[in-house]
Amino acid sequence: MVLTRSRRIFGVGFAALITLAAVFPRPTVAAPGLGPVVTTKDGGQIFGFDIDAQGNDGVLSSSQDLPNGEVLSSVETFDQTSGKIVKKVLVRRNQTDFVTVGIFANDVGLVNHELENGVREYGVMDPVNGNVFTRKWTPPVNPIEVLERADNQDTTTSVLYAIELFNQDVPDLFVSDIAHNTFSRVVHLDPNVFGLNDGPQLAQDTVKNKAVIALSPDGGAVGGHQPEIALVNIANGNIRVFNGVFIPPFHSGFVNGLAVDSTTGTACTTTELDADVEFYDLAHETGFFDSLPGASGNQELSGTAVASDPIHHLFLVAQPVSSVSGGSSIHVYRENGNLLESINGFNFSNVSSVIPVRIALNPSKRIGFVNGPNIDQLQAFSY
Questions:
Q1: How big, in percent rounded to 5, are the helix, strand and coil portions of the chain?
Q2: Is residue 81 part of a domain?
Q3: In this predicted model, what pLDDT tens digit does every residue of 89-120 receive, in sequence order?
Q4: What's the domain count of the chain?
Q5: 294 and 327 share a domain?
Q6: Cα dihedral sign for 125, 62, 80, 316?
Q7: Whether residue 132 is found in the same domain as residue 156
Q8: Residue 100 domain-assigned?
Q9: Last residue of one domain, picked from the residues 111, 137, 163
């Protein structure tokens, strides 16, 4: 584990530093490493989770098949500090499932309820720490399946990527205030560009008021087109697409993860074929790449989920099969591409077959949660 962190202050005298330290004491931050493990009460597999980036609560959904043929599904809240389950908010014993979509601004949670007839209903927890569902979220296009939502707990304008069920999986972007069940725009996307075969990854630039979508043209084929980055103006629906980093000899393959730091206009992606990480200046539409430490282009060591810490301007990259230790790792990068640290000892390589690996962060506490070590668990960590 690399534990170097540089903090340099220029032009401040020693006495002034003492005064500043007294007025603005440095927050206590745990040493980088693993923390508590969250385990579902029912023992069901976790289908989506998130944490409040400004609070201390989290929410998860779980499901499991019972011997009598029923499906036991639950929505539970948990405490970030202790990892303990706070409350079973909702439990069903039938043929339906819950999937946590995410937590949005002001601790507003959204959960997908997959009904037996294939239709989806979306319940809102406002707030999550209230431990109760308060209303429904009803998109103007229905029925839909929300597959991606942009990480954004800073503004009430949220962006979600969904497909239209029973309509050839046509893709749409929904721009919504989740808490008030309002929609400022629905962007109907070209299925030939933004369809499921192109593996879209979604993020949001809240400063520029744009959705950012990383695409894998040619289905991420070996030798295919390099990734593309689409910038969607969520005020008027206009879309601009630019080519991503070109990486020979295999041309990257699928984009596995994407995150954006809106404060700097920087994006970070991971790609499948080469075990590389890419960094983009969205304003200038330029980028560069670097390999995950020790990966040497080995596809089996590719990164997946990416999360942004906009307070400290860091990107955290999940690597299911670690290239620096046994199990799985999370690599912490500065936005200039320099590796800050590698946190090892995770095990999320075997829990991503249905719901992809996710990293959820509380940047003010410098803590996060990721899937594993088992399918009914989440692993807390500090960085």
A1: 10, 45, 45
A2: yes
A3: 999 999 889 999 999 999 999 999 999 888 89
A4: 2
A5: yes
A6: negative
A7: no
A8: yes
A9: 137
Please check whether residue 132 lies inside any domain of the structure.
yes
Quote the DSSP letter at residue 155. S
Let me know whether 306 and 337 are in one domain: yes
**Domain that residue 132 falls in:** 37-137
pTM of the model: 0.90
Q: Residues 74, 182: one domain? A: no
Cβ atoms of 331 and 317 within 8 Å: the answer is yes
Cα–Cα distance measured from residue 100 to residue 61, given in angstroms and rounded to the nearest whole number:
6
Per the domain annotation, does 30 fall within a domain?
no
Q: Whole-angstrom Cα distance, residue 261 to residue 281?
A: 10
Distances (CA, A) of 227 to 115, 121, 248, 267, 374: 35, 33, 12, 13, 32
Supply the CATH number for residue 270's domain: 2.130.10.10
133 lies in the same domain as 151: no
| Whether residue 201 sits in one domain with residue 122 | no
CA angle (365, 50, 252) in 5-degree steps: 95
d(CA 219, CA 242): 17
pLDDT at 227 over 60: yes
Instruction: Tell me: pLDDT of 290 over 80.
Output: yes
Question: What number of residues does the chain have?
Answer: 383
Mean pLDDT check: name the lowest of 118-122, 144-148, 327-331, 349-353.
349-353
At residue 8, does pLDDT exceed 90? no
**What torsion do the CA atoms of 262, 179, 109, 145 make, to the nearest 10 degrees?**
-90
The answer to whether 371 and 348 are in contact (CB under 8 A) is yes
The pLDDT of residue 353 is: 61
Write down the H helix ranges in 93-228: 191-194
Mean pLDDT value across residues 193-205: 95
